[in-house]
């Protein structure tokens, strides 16, 4: 099943990891709403160097966020970021939440 079929069935965010080779996410993934916890990765190649990036959106209708997570080359092999998944995604890009708290200790 393709990523697009999974998205249509609501499965993109089911914890599956997706790797899309040699892709520009802006051209191929525009129609898919990737949640902040989506695990979709794309590669791009320049000469002998392959870059690995993660792609997600902070909210529906927001632009893609693309973070570099690693680089592979014949000389240095695979070099990955040391940041954790949520450390890389801690910037919500201006997304605002409306929250409320209720004190139920006196009930």
Topology:
Layout: H1 3-8, E1 17-20, H2 25-28, E2 39-46, E3 49-57, E4 64-73, E5 77-80, H3 85-88
Parallel strand pairs: 1-2
Antiparallel strand pairs: 2-3, 3-4, 4-5
Structure in a nutshell:
This protein is of the alpha+beta class and 107 residues long. The chain is 13% helix and 33% strand. The protein has one domain (3-88).
Structural features, described:
With about 110 residues, this protein is α+β, with helices and mostly antiparallel strands. It has one domain (about 5-90). The chain is built from three helices and five strands, in the order H-E-H-E-E-E-E-H. The protein has helices spanning about 5-10, 25-30, 85-90; strands at about 15-20, 40-45, 50-55, 65-75, 75-80. Strands 1-2-3-4-5 form a five-stranded mixed beta sheet, with no helix packed on it. It is elongated, with a radius of gyration of 17 Å.
Key phrases:
107 residues, alpha+beta, five-stranded mixed beta sheet, 3 helices, 5 strands, 13% helix, elongated
């Amino acid at each position: 099943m393709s990523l697009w079929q999974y998205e249509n069935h609501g499965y993109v965010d089911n914890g599956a990891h997706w790797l899309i080779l040699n892709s520009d996410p802006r051209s191929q993934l525009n129609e898919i709403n990737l949640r902040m916890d989506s695990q979709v990765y794309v590669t791009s190649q320049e000469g002998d160097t392959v870059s690995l990036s993660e792609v997600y959106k902070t909210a529906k209708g927001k632009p893609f966020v693309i973070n570099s997570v690693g680089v592979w080359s014949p000389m240095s092999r695979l070099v990955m970021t040391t940041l954790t998944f949520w450390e890389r995604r801690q910037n919500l890009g201006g997304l605002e939440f409306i929250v409320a708290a209720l004190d139920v200790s006196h009930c």
